[in-house]
Amino acid sequence: MQGMNVIRRGALAFALAVSAFAVQAQTFPDRPLKLIVPQPPGGGFDTAARIIADRMGPILGQPVVVENRTGAGTLVGTEAAAKSPADGYTLLLGGLANIALNPGLYDKLSYDPLKDFKLVGLVVGNPYMLIARPGLPQKSMKELIDYARANPEKVTYASGGRGTGQHIGMAIVAELAGVKMTHVPYRGAQAAYQDILGDRVDLFFDNWGTAQALVDDKRVIALAASTAQRLPGAPNVATIKELGIGDLDMETWFGLFVPAATPAPVLEKLRADVRKAGTQPDVVALFEKTGGRSLSAMSIADMEALVARDVATFTKLIRAAGIKAE
């Protein structure tokens, strides 16, 4: 009899908890939400965050406030999001760098991207383009690689910070090409672009959405694309794979994540609203105009599979190449 009472009390507690979560979902959100961006303003992280935050606010009925939390590559902001209350009011702008690259880059990582976060939804995918400063004497990848082989560590490449996709992508390209280059990390993409345009650093492996305008205006030199196929917006630029450097097919993606313990009803509401925001025709057109592709129409299962695949692929690739966060 006592055992039955324990079971009944447990069932009642569970039912009350489920009911409380359901009520919470009905009233959620009743205050502004915070979207943590682990990179400074001006780069791919920040651009994607502000586009989706602007569209989500009216759908949720509450503003989504973008907060740039920078430091240690993408670690500071990502760690802050992982430790935040699991109530749906704090979201993380997750990308290839902080979700899929960091596990291979750091021997000790304070968060597990697949266990400590739940995916709310991916919003955009962007290929990378290797660009060069306007005054670089080597105008092709062959000339650049030949020069780099003859002059180890003399060629410099920028990134928006250690551990970013810009850093790791270029390090992988250098490894595949069998050359040694010097990494110059900056605090965000804007600072890196200032030195690229000023002829103070040689190369930048950045997402196409940010680099395209400068390439189109011929203010930088486009050397190679990161994808298996040439980019529609740059049909005359060969791919890393096509140039015979290595079998690389690399795309950065951005999406929203919440702490793993976020109640299911709240998570499902966020997922529905992010999908609604990301599939708006003007958002899809905006992402395509800036060289990307909308990912919001994908199923959650397919999104989760993409993230898990990239975590496994790049962890193996980074460790095999011996790349560290420095």
Number of strands: 10
* Main sheet specs: 10 strands, mixed
Order of H and E elements: HEHEHEHEHEHEHEHEEHHEH
What is the averaged pLDDT score? 91
- Strand residue percentage: 15-25%
Q: What is the CA-atom radius of gyration, in angstroms?
A: 22 Å
Our count of helices gives: 11
Structural class by SSE content: alpha/beta
CA-based shape = globular
Count of distinct structural domains: 2
The helical percent reads: 40-55%
Oligomer: single chain
Q: Which homologous superfamily in CATH is the superfamily of the largest domain?
A: Bordetella uptake gene, domain 1
Write the CATH architecture name of the largest domain.
3-Layer(aba) Sandwich
Q: Low-confidence parts, pLDDT < 50 over ≥5 residues? A: none
CATH fold type of the largest domain: D-Maltodextrin-Binding Protein, domain 2
Distance between the termini: 63 Å
Class of the largest domain in CATH? Alpha Beta
Task: Put the structure in a nutshell.
The chain is 45% helix and 19% strand. It contains 11 helices and 10 strands.
Key words describing this protein structure:
single chain, 326 residues, alpha/beta, D-Maltodextrin-Binding Protein, domain 2, 2 domains, ten-stranded mixed sheet, 45% helix, globular
